[in-house]
Design goal:
alpha/beta, about 15% strand, LacI/GalR-like_sensor, transcription regulation, Ribose operon repressor
Length: about 325
């Protein structure tokens, strides 16, 4: 494999001149530039990204730890993060933790050893990243795109799930519904607890009673919505409307209603949460709470890059505001 010295020898110039031609960071005459570029082409020389990163102490790489699932929300969020990285000249290295603490810390160590410039975390609701590993790499800034409490100096970006749950339920109340159920997510996850709390707040404010069996705990996956809706339909008096705490479960709930011969919204009104791309193509299109996934990814990358350039800046804790997307399901 050809080296920069080989290029310099063939072009009859110094290695520093070859470097200036490649990096375009200093004036080089057209004649010298042509010689260097001809040598590069003849030798099929490719600059070493590793060597360059060691020289400037940057890899232009962002690491991301995420617990993936069948929920399309996560893939759409990662898409927004990757796009934002690309637009800013960074590469994204994505690691799936599968919700496993050992795998999370192994991936964390690997990303740190690869000298990523910064780290995004969306995997900490169940397990905290190893403090020992983070302390070994104190210069790597971190942004939490998550909800779990974290004692470190990371910047934090969150959705306002409490407000979103309240908005969704209030919308159903404003439509005239009084018997409203809720399919919540797993209560070991903060967004699920906050969305359920928002539902309860809106019901209490309107003076409405939450009947026994009208709060079902799902799993934030398609199957959870299907099973939870079946449980609601088995009640002696089925609800008029249901706030479902994420769109993936709403998709499952639609199937349960279809199999029961019931129509949305004529028989049961539905409001979801997340506004995944699929929501607008459901039948009828799903009314849902929009999480600004692209904005979340863009903001996370911008905050991280700003932290990379200025490690001394004050810790940031940012909260994005949910928006109701009114369609046909309620």
């Amino acid at each position: 494999m050809a080296t920069m010295k080989d290029v310099a020898r063939m072009a009859g110039v110094s290695t520093s001149t070859v470097s200036h031609v490649i990096n375009k960071d200093r004036f080089v005459s057209d004649a010298i530039r042509e010689k260097v570029e001809s040598a590069i082409k003849a030798l099929n020389y490719a600059p070493s990204a590793l060597a360059r990163s060691l020289k400037i102490n940057q890899t232009r790489t962002i690491g991301m730890l995420i617990t993936a699932s069948t929920n399309p929300f996560y893939s759409e969020l990662v898409r927004g993060v990757e796009r934002s990285c690309f637009e800013r000249g960074y590469s994204l290295v994505l690691c799936n933790t599968e919700g496993d603490e050992q795998r999370m810390n192994s991936n964390l160590e690997t990303l740190m050893q690869k000298r990523v410039d910064g780290l995004l975390l969306l995997c900490t609701e169940t397990h905290q990243p190893s403090r020992e590993i983070l302390q070994r790499y104190p210069s790597v800034p971190t942004v939490m795109m998550d909800w779990a409490p974290f004692d470190g100096d990371s910047d934090l970006i969150q959705d306002n799930s409490l407000l979103g749950g309240d908005m969704a339920t209030q919308y159903l109340i404003n439509k005239g519904h009084t018997h409203i159920a809720c399919i919540a997510g797993p209560l070991d996850k903060t967004p699920a607890r906050l969305r359920l709390e928002g539902y309860r707040d809106a019901m209490a404010r309107a003076g409405l009673t939450i009947l026994d069996g009208n709060e079902i705990i799902g799993n934030f996956e398609f199957s959870g919505g299907f099973e939870a809706m079946q449980m609601l339909l088995a009640l002696e008096v089925r609800p008029q409307a249901v706030f479902i705490c994420n769109d993936a479960m709403a998709v499952g709930a639609y199937l349960a209603l279809y199999q029961a011969g019931l129509r949305v919204p004529q028989d049961i009104a539905i409001v979801g949460y997340d506004d995944i791309e699929l929501a607008q193509y459901m039948t009828p299109p799903l009314t849902t709470i929009h999480q600004p996934k692209d904005e979340l990814g863009e903001l996370a990358i911008d905050v991280l890059i700003h932290r990379i350039s200025d490690p001394t800046q004050q810790q940031q804790r940012l909260q994005l505001t949910p928006v109701l997307m009114e369609r046909g399901s309620a």
